[in-house]
Write a structure and sequence with these properties.
The protein is 45% helix and 14% strand. It contains 18 helices and 16 strands. Strand 8 (229-232) and strand 9 form a beta hairpin. Bound molecules: zinc ion.
């Protein structure tokens, strides 16, 4: 009888230990998800959690204590391995060195020695040779985008299909490309000056910047085979919704952001320090598929467009505040996953053609309607591949530059077909971007050979010839 009771007690204690272990490791995983590239604070919190498990099982004197300890060492090393896979060797080393028990744990010390060894193979990549590629919203259903209507030509020229995108990204990964942030390339100092930063990568790896324009899911694209919006799903992941023919809504990877999130989960070494792309947002029809602009709140006569009126008519219970809240939640979830945002101007304008005063008003609208939803940014990605000057560095004589700088913009991107174009000024960085769309792939496949092989990526559903511009 005594024997049975003892056995039962042991079983109950063992179950309790397993349960506690699961809870702790579960909460740790959540912390890791939210943290992105781990900061010092999280390192300490996680070291503490690992130690708590150790202490608990020790007190209970249950067999399997050793397993628990090596389990937490294993988890710690797995976290550090992920940081190192994303080239953050210092972060990996710091994480392990800060953990309690490091001085007496050979496994942790060996891991640190390994990271230090790999780090010595890395070299600083010339930041003025970093290429930058961009896409528009990806075509999810070719048969709807390329259906012969009046919008087909435009989609065929400037859009990329999901199958093309997947091939391009896989090929770039295979060639050693690694996504970096514009903020990995330069640093803005307290006094407003901008200086170069260093990007350290192992041999064979090449940094590139990824951006996507107009992720607004504009009204005109409804029914043309594009995603409806970005959402945060029940697992806290950013996904797209898509409206099927029967009106039902599917959730999945139907545009660049979730496609890249999924790709990086499978290939963490495609991302430098956990950084991903930068999304260039206009404001006039809201952001990320949400109708957040002030016009949707005020419905000011004279400003409501034909498309917007149609939207109001078909959405009688539209709630502007809830739209803003949802868009902010998506933006926050994206930022936690390594994404950044840029201004693409509020009204998709070319400043020089639009005029100074109109550009000031447009910028005020971006700051009041977009920055308030997704957060502020110091990156301006011009629409139409425009710029506010020629190839020579901006000077303080340039009223547009002086104005944008006064509004907090430090990094400016135009469109340039060369392999890379980066310019550092005293108070700014500029970079040219390369369009990877139907037009470029059809007319200039030779200009893309450093990135991918067009013949492998080309979607045979795309009508040819791609219309000339
Ligand atoms: Zn655009």
């Amino acid at each position: 009888m005594k024997c049975i009771i003892t056995l039962l007690v042991i079983v109950v204690i063992a179950l309790a230990v397993v349960l506690i272990k699961e809870i702790v490791s579960g909460s740790r995983k959540k912390t890791q998800n939210r943290a992105g590239s781990g900061t010092g604070e999280i390192v300490i919190a996680e070291g503490g959690a690992g130690n708590a498990v150790e202490g608990l099982s020790g007190e209970d004197g249950v067999e399997g204590t050793a397993g628990t300890v090596s389990g937490s060492t294993g988890e710690l090393i797995a976290q550090a391995d992920l940081l190192a896979a994303q080239y953050d060797y210092d972060g990996a080393i710091q994480l392990l060195k800060a953990s309690i028990g490091y001085v007496s744990n050979m496994e942790l010390q060996n891991a640190v020695a390994g990271y230090e060894q790999t780090k010595t193979t890395c070299a600083s990549y010339p930041v003025d040779q970093v290429t930058h590629v961009f896409f528009h919203t990806l075509v999810k259903d070719d048969s709807k985008a390329f259906d012969g209507d009046e919008k087909e030509a435009g989609y065929n020229q400037v859009m990329t299909t999901i199958s093309e995108f997947n091939s391009i990204i896989q090929q770039m990964y295979d060639k050693g490309y690694v996504m970096v942030s514009l903020h990995d390339m330069c640093k803005v100092n307290e006094d407003g000056t901008v200086s170069r930063k260093e990007i350290y990568l192992p041999p064979g790896k090449k940094p590139f910047v990824l951006s996507q324009d107009d992720v607004s899911y504009y009204h005109y694209m409804d029914g043309d085979g594009f995603a409806q919006k970005l959402i945060v799903d029940e697992n806290g992941e950013v996904k797209n919704t898509y409206i099927e023919d029967d009106g039902s809504i599917s959730v999945g990877d139907y545009d660049m952001v979730p496609l890249i999130d999924t790709f990086v989960k499978e290939h963490p070494d495609f991302s430098y320090h956990g950084h991903k792309g930068i999304v260039a947002l206009t404001g006039y029809e809201g952001v990320l598929g949400y109708r957040t602009d002030e016009v949707y709140r005020t419905r000011e006569s004279g400003r409501v467009t034909h498309y917007q009126q149609q939207f109001f008519d078909s959405h009688p219970d539209f709630d502007w505040q809830s739209e803003v809240d949802q868009a902010t939640a998506v933006a926050d979830a994206m930022k936690a996953e390594g994404w950044e945002f840029a201004s693409h101007t509020w009204g998709h304008i070319n400043p020089l053609g639009y005029g100074y005063d109109a550009t000031v008003q447009d910028t005020e609208r971006w700051l009041a309607n977009v920055a308030t939803v997704v957060g502020s940014t110091d990156v301006l990605i011009f629409a139409f591949g425009a710029d506010i000057g020629d190839w020579q560095p901006y000077t303080s004589d340039n009223a547009f530059f002086t104005y944008f700088k006064s509004k907090g913009f430090n990094i400016f991107c135009n469109v340039d077909s060369s392999q890379y174009w980066v310019q550092f000024g005293n108070t700014f960085m500029r970079q040219g971007r390369r369009n990877l769309d139907g037009y470029r792939m059809y007319y200039n496949p030779d200009m893309l050979y450093d990135l991918f092989d067009v013949s492998q990526a080309w979607d045979s559903n795309r009508p040819t010839p791609v219309p000339a511009m």
